[in-house]
Amino acid sequence: MTKIVWNAMTADMIDPAIQSVGKSSETLGLRVHRVLVAIAADWQATTDQRKAVVRVNALMDSLGNGVVRRQALVSWVTSPKHFGMILADKEEPGKTAGTTKTVKRIVAGKMKAAKLDMPFLTNSHWWLFTKEPEFKAFDFSAKIVALIVEADKIVKRQDKRDKVDTSALTALREIEKTLKAA
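Below the sequence we write its predicted structure tokens.
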């Protein structure tokens, strides 16, 4: 973890720093795209998808958390129009000897190297391919109301396979009343 000295930047340094961050983020996105296109070109030349998969995962691993929109990258490489790779759960060694952890990794798909459309890949930038999701604030009251509505529908069905704890449902109704009063 990098130690941040919070008072190391003067007020006069903030605006130029913001511009610098903006420019470096643009170039980082473009550099990532160039690496992806280079991986595709090598894959097409060698027809070795395994090497391309290893490189895509290495690229993803090399990017710091929060620096790049990983989901946009994953969408781009898993799209049938692009690399057509697959996202799958893989077991990898854990930090402690003898342990494993399950992680999402890019794995080979059905795409053949000969079918890679290099002009399309070059001009279809990963950051434009998938829009950044809009922020949706958590609305606790709305979630409780939705849960009550769903539970009421299930209770009306009177299917013995459904399990709705009526005392919990009554408690939720009381919480809803409290939230409305607030």
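Helices lie at 11-46, 49-62, 70-78, 118-123, 126-129, 140-157, 166-181.
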